[in-house]
Specification:
By secondary structure, this protein is α/β, with parallel strands linked by helices. The protein has one domain (8-237): Carbamate kinase, CATH 3.40.1160.10. The protein has nine helices and eleven strands. Strands 4-3-5-2-1-6-10-11-9 form a nine-stranded mixed sheet, sandwiched between helices. The radius of gyration is 17 Å and the shape is globular. The mean pLDDT is 94.
Length: 238
């Protein structure tokens, strides 16, 4: 049996994966596709936590452009992430994967409040822990929440799933000549102003020596291959 390179990981998912081809809302078929990848990855005896965004439901940038207060827009985004958490949790549970949802903003009727030691205990028992509501504070993205939670649970790596197979020096969907990197240092990624992850999250990873892998969540074995250490994405490390 194949052996995973990492024992405990945090997977960062964009809310866009929940929408499928519709690009808005939640597509149950798309959610099941993500859940299938997670279920297969767990067969490698990996402990996995997940942070998920809400771009499929709410994008605060548009609201800000129309005059909404930043803090209000951010809190709305945090609440939206919980909708995605519940959708992913439902899909995983239907597949026989035991999960726990924890939120940075208390919503006791639908999820546990975030408690670090409890989250770690769930992971040790083989449960998938899905974190919602970001950090619980405005002005911080779900990327930053992912980096923070990864360090709090002592994850060995932060896996960021995207729709491109790594980090490029330009948008590969718009520029066919864009150069793909196999490995970057934190400083290189920060200096290049790459949009794969915001600077606060990257700096947090750098200050705490947390490796980051950016990879494409397709084909269906991509997450398994990333956990096995195959070079399917870009590694950012010291």
């Amino acid at each position: 049996m194949a052996v995973a390179k990492y024992k405990r990981v945090l997977l960062k998912l964009s809310g866009d994966f929940m929408a499928g081809e519709a690009e808005f809302g939640i597509d149950p078929v798309a959610v099941d596709g993500v859940a299938e990848q997670i279920k297969r990855a767990l067969e490698l005896d990996v402990q996995m936590a997940i942070v998920i965004g809400a771009g499929n439901i709410w994008r605060g940038s548009g609201a800000l452009a129309r005059g909404m207060e930043r803090a209000t827009a951010d809190y709305m985004g945090m609440v939206a992430t919980v909708i995605n958490v519940l959708a992913l949790q439902d899909s995983l549970e239907r597949m026989g994967v035991i999960t726990r949802a924890q939120t940075a903003i208390e919503m006791r009727q639908v999820a546990e409040p975030y408690i670090r030691r409890r989250a770690i205990r769930h992971l040790e028992k083989g449960r998938v822990v899905i974190f919602g509501a970001g950090t619980g504070n405005p002005y911080f993205t779900t990327d930053t929440a992912a980096a923070l939670r990864a360090m709090e649970i002592n994850a060995e790596i932060l896996l960021k799933a995207t729709k491109v197979d790594g980090i490029y020096d330009d948008d590969p969907l718009k520029n066919s000549a864009a150069k793909r990197f196999e490995r970057l240092s934190y400083i290189e990624a920060l200096n290049m102003g790459l949009k794969v992850m915001d600077s606060t999250a990257l700096t947090l990873c750098m200050d705490n020596n947390l490796p980051l892998m950016v990879f494409k969540l397709a084909p269906p074995d991509s997450l398994v291959r990333a956990l096995l250490g195959e070079p399917i994405g870009t590694i950012v490390c010291k």
